[in-house]
Amino acid sequence: MTPLLSATGLHVTFPGRRGGPPARAVDGVDLDVGAGEIVALVGESGCGKTTLARSLLGLVRPASGSVTFGGTPLSYASRDLKAYRRRVQLVLQDPSGSLNPRHTVYDAVAEGLRIHAYEGDERAAVASALSRAGLRPPERFFLRYPHELSGGQRQRVVIAGALVLEPELIVADEPVASLDASVRGEILALLLRLRDELGLSALVVTHDLGLAWNIADRVAVMYLGRIVETGTVEEVLSAPRHPYTQALLSVLPESPTAPVVLSGEPPDPSRVPAGCRFHARCQVLASGEAERVGVAARCRTEDLPVLAGHGRGAACHWADRE
Questions:
Q1: Matching PROSITE patterns, A to Z (predicted)?
Q2: d(CA 60, CA 277)
Q3: Radius of gyration of the chain from its Cα atoms, rounded to whole angstroms
Q4: Element of type H or E holding 197
Q5: Is 306 left (phi over 0), alpha (psi -120 to 50) or beta?
Q6: Is the model's pLDDT at 322 over the cut of 70?
Q7: Which of 8, 165, 156 is nearest to 85 (CA)?
């Protein structure tokens, strides 16, 4: 079956500092999101998750590679991008920063309809979107301003603003990071309900593997511009194969293993190391285990292929030794 959204061989670079080599923010990514599927894109801050999400939305043009939606390559002509963004909507991390404090809730949700010259009943469309986002009765919120709402209500307004155009897919960048723990579950339940009721697909960008466990069908773990492990949520989070994924999982409160403290910071994306890009921080290499099984030299010198956009895989010489 053709994926709803697909990236193939995607590379995004930014100019280097002071004329240095370019920063390889996204350095060869294949990623698929199927119809009615929720995919979690997971990794540390600075690993390229948000840049990848922006390139999938057409907000950042890749240096090479392609993005397709419904089997059709993404066109970067203004008219085509406008039509594409009606079908694919963005939900940002900070609802306070996403909403204009001078606009009422009604105007905030209706903005997308006005940009796309909606010809139907605007009031009914806004009310329906707010209701779907869990703000009922919707008319009670029409004339409110963002400062009159709780954090959870503001995030629901942002989600309603995305839903009002009836998109097929939403890209949610850290959708609950700024919310209290008591509200996070409500927003995650809302996203799941929208998937079940509307068939909505979602790419959820997060650093939180616990969130991925609660909401995702599949997980893609990203490190230094490349996806290093992918699979169903049960496969990746129950039996992680890549040392980086294992380290991320080890610090969750419910983890049965001792926390793995990674040394140093991720390398500069303008100077991606030879071999496995994680090897300088890898606990398996540092412990001597990679040397014992005979893959240490490969870890330091031999690059790994780009993982397929679907299926089970880990870009790791140690994990692939068997």
A1: ABC_TRANSPORTER_1, ABC_TRANSPORTER_2
A2: 24
A3: 21
A4: helix 181-198
A5: beta
A6: no
A7: 165
Please choose, from the candidates 24, 36, 22, 40, the residue with its C-alpha nearest in 3D space to the C-alpha of residue 232: 40
The answer to whether 200 and 168 are in contact (CB under 8 A) is: yes
How far apart, in whole angstroms, are the C-alpha atoms of residue 313 and residue 308? 8
Instruction: Give every CB contact of residue 114 below 8 A, 6+ residues apart in sequence.
Output: 122
DSSP state of 281: G
- Non-local CB neighbours of 231 within 8 Å, separated by 6+ positions: 218, 219, 311, 312, 313
Query: In one letter, which amino acid is 276?
Result: C
Which of 31, 35, 36, 33 is closest to 192 using CA atoms?
36
**In this structure, what are the phi and psi dihedrals at residue 222, rounded to the nearest 5 degrees?**
-115, 140
Would you state the structure tokens that stand for residue 63, as one six-digit string? Answer: 């240096």
Q: What is the CATH number of domain 5-314?
A: 3.40.50.300
pTM, full prediction:
0.94
Q: From start to end of 250-303, where are the E strands?
A: none
Domain regions of the chain by residue span: 5-314
Per-residue pLDDT tens over the stretch 153-167: 999 999 999 999 999
Residue given tokens 């990071």 in the structure block: 177
Would you state the pLDDT for residue 97? 81
Model confidence over 50-84: pLDDT tens digits? 999 999 999 999 999 999 999 999 999 999 999 99
Separation of alpha carbons 289 and 236, rounded Å: 21
